[in-house]
Design brief:
alpha/beta; six-stranded parallel β-sheet; 10 strands
Length: 489
């Protein structure tokens, strides 16, 4: 299907009837759709736009006809089944039994089950297997259940393009795959019907790749929040009897967010360092990483996006700091105190430069994090070649970590050596956050040394330690001379 057709609105009035079939469309093939819900309507629209003749089977065709495109024929279920050899069953599992009266007419036809369950593994058998048990004379194919009605309406370019297909009949799978391709989707063969249960569970999983990164971010947030709460609220109350609870909603949170973001960013590049250490230690790239490290490597994208999210929140919170009423009161109180002490100026050159550098470096770090987040989106990443993507995510990502470290160091400046900054003998929070990032930076610098970089590059190109061929060369004095030289390859 052409790009122009995919970009057009699909639910326009009267637009589907008079359009010609796209190039490559199986003109003349009639496809049936049983059901009149949202998905059935979206499916009928997409099939019509793709050049198919569509027959919709409904229990109330007169009342439902206005909901479908004019090019689609809306009739009773029995009539629709007779006119098509491929039937999309777009009804719920509990209504499958209502089709038993059509068993004789359905013999030999391909039934495409597009349904999903309400819970993961809600039934012992998948919906497709249940449908196949009700109609053993039919060929059942599981497909299109991971595609939303919105994707069908707006076109595959604006949603998930993959259509997962499984069936025990190879010819039926091939037929449905051809239909999916004509509709603008990418068919993926998932094997036999036993895979239907897994396919039906996919739409029910809520952010499966995000659970570990989210729990990690929440754990770090709670740890740093508690640490900052002790230092900024509890310590003044115990030692000076000052009520600082007003700091919790904004100031304590704003102190916590950059800590989480900074550590999460370092955790994106730490598994790469550990993987490199493992390859150098064992001298091969063919040894499998531990499962925890393998999972860590697979979740780097989500960890990086959460790091950017926390950094963006930190920027917004920082802009809101002067808006607080408490900040205004403290500013007025400081001005009055200076007036009473007859101080004409409070300009401190060192502090001015520190804050200027601190804010400037922070803006650059946030900009680099934004670039990393944008290029991690599939639509942007697919437009980059591997070298461009690797340069942005690896080189610029490491640069973002280095600049974030400079941002943290300029924030701390010389306060790490001020004993008044140690509340309950607890060091400032930013000193704790420097541990993991500095470890990553030092390791990356060591790996960039020519001797180590060359060895690591050889390993990643297939070289293995301890595996070589020994060639023995005869010396120049004679073939059977005792003197000989050897070469290891």
């Amino acid at each position: 299907m052409s790009r122009g057709d995919m970009a057009k609105p699909l639910l326009g009035q009267g637009g589907a009837a008079g359009e010609r079939s796209p190039p490559g469309a199986p003109a003349g093939r009639t496809v049936g759709v049983l059901g009149s819900g949202d998905f059935a309507r979206s499916l009928a629209v997409r099939l019509v736009r793709s050049g198919f003749r569509v027959v919709v089977g409904s229990r109330n065709p007169k009342r439902k006809a206005s909901l479908f495109p004019a090019a689609a024929e809306v009739t009773f279920q029995a009539e629709a089944v007779k006119k098509a050899d491929i039937i999309f069953v777009a009804i719920f599992r509990e209504h499958y039994s209502t089709l038993c009266d059509l068993a004789d007419v359905l013999v030999g036809k391909i039934l495409v089950d597009v349904s999903n369950n309400t819970e993961i593994n809600h039934h012992k058998e998948s919906n497709a297997e249940y449908l196949a048990s009700l109609f053993p004379a039919c060929t059942v194919v599981k497909a299109f259940n991971v595609v939303s009605a919105w994707t069908l309406q707006s076109g595959a370019r604006d949603g998930n393009k993959q259509v997962l297909i499984c069936s025990n009949n190879q010819e039926a799978k091939r037929t449905i795959a051809e239909i999916a391709q004509v509709m603008g989707f990418t068919p993926v063969d998932m094997g036999c019907m036993s895979s239907a249960c897994e396919i039906e569970n996919i739409p029910l999983r809520l952010l499966p790749d995000w659970k570990i990164p989210i729990f990690l971010a929440l754990g770090l947030f709670l740890c740093f929040f508690t640490y900052n709460l002790i230092r900024q609220v509890i310590h003044p109350y115990i030692r000076e009897q000052k009520n600082k609870l007003y700091k919790i909603p904004i100031e304590v949170v704003n102190t916590t967010l950059p800590c989480v973001s900074y550590v999460m960013l370092s955790l994106v590049y730490l598994p790469g360092v550990l993987a490199a250490c493992s390859q150098l230690y064992y001298g091969t790239k063919y040894r499998r990483f531990p499962d925890w490290l393998d999972q860590w490597l697979q979740h780097r994208k989500q960890i990086g996006l959460l790091s950017f999210f926390c950094a963006a929140l930190h920027a917004v919170y920082s802009l809101c700091l002067p808006m607080r009423r408490s900040h205004r009161y403290l500013l007025i109180e400081t001005a009055v105190k200076q007036a009473m002490e007859k101080k004409m100026t409070v300009w401190v050159e060192e502090e001015v430069w520190r804050m200027e550098i601190y804010i400037s470096v922070g803006i650059i770090a946030l900009g680099l994090l934004s670039l990393l987040a944008i290029t991690s989106l599939p639509s942007i990443a697919n437009s980059l070649n591997w070298r461009e993507f690797s340069f942005i995510q690896s080189s610029l990502g490491f640069l973002a970590l280095v600049i974030s470290t400079l941002h943290t160091l300029t924030y701390g400046w010389s306060r790490a050596f001020d004993e008044n900054q140690y509340k309950f003998y607890l060091p400032p929070t930013y000193t704790l956050t420097l541990l993991v990032p500095c470890t990553v930076i030092i390791a990356r610098v060591i790996f960039s040394l020519p001797c180590i970089q060359h060895r690591l590059l050889r390993i990643r190109r297939g070289w293995e330690k301890g595996r070589y061929v020994k060639f023995v060369l005869p010396s120049a004095t004679g073939e059977f001379s005792s003197g000989e030289t050897s070469s290891n390859v």
